[in-house]
Amino acid sequence: MYRDSPDRLGGESSSVEFSRKIFVNCGGGGYGIFNHSVWNGLTVADVVFPWFAFVMGEALVLSLNARLRTSLPRFTAFGQVARRSLFLALIGICLGSINVSWANVRLPGVLQRLAAMYLIVGALECAFMRTSQNITPEI
């Protein structure tokens, strides 16, 4: 339905990466390839966080650029970034508090760090992103 729209950004890769991140953090189904390496190797589990951060940063820049070009006020765009960052941090806190007492909840978790990174980069992009391409036709 929305896939044919040229204005819509594909969110499938972000949701797949989010699902993969949760899968790896919950033990990876017992498969050895999804275990973190001790210190001298590289496995799939070791590249999930950087890849998710990259995909999240690309999606942030592309979506903010599209929204700011439609004359959305920068303050409104920052409000949306702050709201998404808060929701991401709350999801991380909720997932980290499963089967743990509230006294032992780990607040500086992975999703909370991604939320902080999303908030910082989103604030910088809202403040400094150019909304015009500055393309001049050749004569």
UniProtKB/TrEMBL annotation:
It holds the Pfam family DUF5009. The chain crosses the membrane at residues 48-66, 86-104, 110-129. The keyword Cell membrane does not apply. Residues 40-120 form the DUF5009 domain. The keyword Transmembrane applies. It comes from Parnassius apollo. The lineage of its organism: Eukaryota, Metazoa, Ecdysozoa, Arthropoda, Hexapoda. This is (apollo) hypothetical protein. Keywords: Membrane, Transmembrane, Transmembrane helix.
